Amino acid sequence: MKGYVFHGPGQSAWEEVPDPGIKEPTDAIVRVDAVTICGTDLHILKGDVPEVQPGTVLGHEAVGEIVEVGGDVRTVRPGDRVLVSCITACGRCRYCREAAYGQCLGGGGWILGHLIDGTQAEYVRVPYADLSVHTLPAAVPDRDAVLLADIFPTAYEVGVLNGRVRPGDTVVVVGAGPIGLAAIATARLFAPERIVAVDVAAARLEAARSLGADAVADAGEAPDQLIADLTTGLGADVVIEAVGVPETFELCTRMVRAGGHVANIGVHGRPATLHLEDLWIRNLTITTGLVDTHSTPTLLRMAAAGRLPTSELVTHTFPLDRMQEAYDVFGAAADTGALKVVLGGPLREVVAVQPD
Predict the structure, then answer these.
(1) Which domain covers residue 264, as residue numbers?
(2) Cβ of 176: how many Cβ atoms within 10 Å?
(3) Where is region (Disordered) located (predicted)?
(4) What is the pLDDT of residues 228-260, one digit of tens each?
(5) Confidence at residue 314, expressed as pLDDT on a 0 to 100 scale
(6) How many CB atoms lie within 10 A of CB 51?
(7) Quick check: 89 and 101 in contact, CB under 8 A?
(8) pLDDT in tens, 21-49
(9) In what order do the strands lie in the sheet with 194-199?
(10) 3-class DSSP state for residue 278?
């Protein structure tokens, strides 16, 4: 088969790789029908994630069809259409028993496209399939469903839930890329008073408005002053960092009110300064996190009911064999206007079922 292989910082290719096979009785083999590219994949290509070894197939999000299962798999069978989660869960360790699947000690966590071959290929082996794939409702098309493998649960869990968004809050989302936009969409579920998006790209700020941001701010034009003006000097109740650079993290700590929450989602490749000389007195809660995907079943139900704006985030589609072109488009988002790119095809169409 073919897959998109990391060969070291700045080096990657769509090339022939060995077909995956069942290694453990809890494995499943999935034929990939749709896959997407994550900002984390770009961090890997820059060398920001040194655990990824040259020769690894990238990718940790996919929709596909089960073609083979190990003898211990009970919840899915060949022919099932499934979502491949970005997080793998053994289901038995201390963290899995607490639904903290991202910290799995039993060989799970974030392993696809990180520690083992990932989903940006024609087929993928998924360990611990019973807890690591989700059967898909017929009402959710592939290009929408694949966004529930990572960006929606990440934005919802690590941003909105960790940030403790509540009704009436002022919420600021710094970074209006795919994760930030998903944070805006899911923060709306908690009826905040206002959501403010901060970014440097006008196109992304416009996308933020379309997904529910009440106000937008150019990151280069003193957004902290705007937040102070909107809140009569108090500051935001919740600030969600969705970029992953030191400057945006420090901006978040300047915009949050005393007693507020800073929820960091961004993948940081460089150290960020924590100004405790200013922050120690302000009763702040700062959270970080890797997604656990415990919310994926809930989000799938919401997507099937039309409650999540998944399709609005997909701006470009490609066949699988144009993986490098898709990376080029996604990596140059400031020029191309790309939000999420989806690869695969032909993409399955959903047929509405009329009630009797």
Answers:
(1) 153-287
(2) 29
(3) 1-20
(4) 999 999 999 999 999 999 999 999 999 999 999
(5) 96
(6) 9
(7) yes
(8) 999 999 999 999 999 999 999 999 999 89
(9) 215-218, 194-199, 170-174, 236-241, 256-264, 285-287
(10) helix
